[in-house]
Write a structure and sequence with these properties.
The chain has about 110 residues and is mostly helical. The protein contains five helices and no strands. It has helices at about 15-25, 40-60, 70-75, 80-85, 95-110. It binds zinc ion (ZN).
């Protein structure tokens, strides 16, 4: 069966359904079964890859971040091992050092696991 495109140019039907079908442009996202990446999905994926890469590097350095999520930011901003292992960046490197000292003490005292 040959497909004959509807002749939109010469169609005389008012409010013609076939014309609408012929001229409507489906947005890529509305087309099922087709992998469409929106800008935000691309961003999410880039972030995910950056997090996974950072996580692997940190693990290789003998550090254990609590999760892969946000590992890139942690790697970039943390100045102490404690920050990496707690998954939290403290205000300033000085603060981070003090917190790390206290944290190690609490661990040594058996207050923290
Ligand atoms: Zn028509």
């Amino acid at each position: 069966m040959a497909f004959t495109p509807h002749d939109v140019q010469n169609c005389k039907v008012d409010n013609c359904f076939a014309c609408k079908c012929a001229t409507i442009s489906f947005s890529a996202a509305a087309t099922p079964g087709r992998k469409v990446e929106t800008a935000s999905q691309v961003q999410d994926e880039k972030r995910l890859v950056a997090d996974l890469d950072a996580y692997k590097r940190l693990r290789k350095d003998g550090l254990q971040p609590p999760a892969t999520k946000n590992a890139a930011a942690l790697e970039r901003l943390a100045t102490t091992k404690t920050e990496i292992e707690r998954g939290k960046v403290y205000g300033t490197p000085k603060m981070a050092r003090e917190i790390e000292t206290n944290y190690k003490q609490l661990k040594a005292d058996g207050v923290l696991a």
